[in-house]
Amino acid sequence: QVQLVESGGGLVQSGGSLTLSCAATGPIANINTMRWFRQAPRSQRELVASIRSVGTTEYADSAKGRFTISRDDAKNTVYLRMNSLKSEDTAVYYCSFLAYPASYWGHGTQVTVSS
What we know:
Blueprint: E1 4-7, E2 10-13, E3 18-24, E4 33-39, E5 46-52, E6 57-59, E7 67-72, E8 77-82, E9 91-99, E10 102-105, E11 109-114
Parallel strand pairs: 2-11
Antiparallel strand pairs: 1-3, 3-8, 4-5, 4-9, 5-6, 7-8, 9-10, 9-11
């Protein structure tokens, strides 16, 4: 069964940058939307950014101007470049692929921003 594997999380100081990656362990046909979510302690999971197959991107207000989502369809991989990180960005970050009617989720990667 194909899985999604996130990488690139870690500990970074406030103002720093990280790039998250999420790759599928096998081929997935007709991926429409790739998304990044995050979940902070005692909070609900929230959508951070999404990118459609045609390249259209959307961002949460908290991510606009600081985060950039991109995708490499040849590698079935999505990236999230995060700049100017803040302590409130601390969360577990999850990727998700939508390939109707199926959806795929990763197990998450921890991002911790120290102030």
